[in-house]
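pipeline: protein-struct stage 2 | run 1193 | DUF218 domain-containing protein
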Amino acid sequence: MNFKTHLFEKFMIILGLLNILYFIICFFTFRIIVNFSGFFLLLGFILIVIGALGIKFPQKYKILIRIFKGLISFILIVFIILQACIIYNANTGIINNADYIMILGGGIRGKSMLLIQLQRTEKALEFIKKNPDVKIIVSGGQGPGEDISEAEAMKEYLIKHGVNSENIIKEDKSKNTMQNMKYTAEILKAADSGNDLRIGIVTSNFHIFRAKFLARRAGLNAEGISAPSNELLLPNFSVRECFAIIKSFFLDK
């Protein structure tokens, strides 16, 4: 059989296997089904089935394969554009000083911060040590399985590590990134008129692009302060973030 025969279908099968392998690696590394990682498992099976059908029944599923090729091409183009935006913003526009910084919550369990929120708070602490007079807004409400708000958890951590409590403002009502920005904009307007303030948004590297985009929608002059993410989970976070960007573009006003 010619190597080029069913090349697209073979590519789909290999890509499907890689997706399933990624899910398995994440599962055995963290001993849990990581949030959103099930997407890679489902996508893997779909790609394998499509590829296998195209090889086994090339004429019967010819139209389906053509449609799928077009769909995959479109999705890849969108994905590449969004990933370029994510990567570019994760590594540029980082400010060295600010009037305020806002730290975006990333989840807690009970009263303990999850890794993603801890990484953001630690990054903020680095910035605060270099800029001790900066005002800090800790932003994040209380969700299921959380005994306190994300904002309270971050505030307690910062105070424990020597940050002056008088410099910390809590925003503890938000449930998503758009609300983070809206409620913070309201706080800034009440506390400091909100005019011409330089805001540094402390969030995960993959989240900087969307956070800045939504901050501008809320009327904030904001730049990103990029916190690191777990390298193994970065593909998971980045793919999920693509869906979140599309959702935010159309729905978060």
